[in-house]
Hints:
Number of strands: 0
Number of helices: 9
Order of helices and strands: HHHHHHHHH
Amino acid sequence: xxxxxxNDQLGANPIEEITHRTGAWTLKFILITLTITPVRQIFxxxxxxxxxxxxxxxxxxxxxxxxxxxxxxxxxxxFSEIFKDISKRPYITIGFTNLILLIPxxxxxxxxxxxxxxxxxxxxxxxxxxxxxxxxFHYLWLVKVDILYPVIYGLVLIVLLGAxxxxxxxxxxxxxxxx
Length: 179
């Protein structure tokens, strides 16, 4: 993207293109991160779990880039306009909320913080489900008319969450049979 920007290859509205690409990659990394646990559970790939934290941090990184492209390139540090946008435009409100919700997940992603928080760590990191749903709505409300991609991402999220429910039910049935 930097190379394309340098070579004037980001289209008629490069700021919008940068903002949209970083937002799309944020959502992709959130969904890829949410894919790790079902893939591990369904296919028995235990070592894949090592990738989850890194992928989650990539999602946070792109979310920060997405916000900074809006904050710096689009709004030019104009705090009054940003606060107006946050209060007037639901997709910006929910996008900003997502960024705020991602911060504690990124900050507590170390082994040391997981140990320090104990059981609360898992509860905190379950915010990713809320963030994922909010991300779909953020995208859906942004595009308004051409909803194909947000719908596809939403369906992927439904499949991923459904896989988690299915795995939990299978585990529960196995426990009942053994018990």
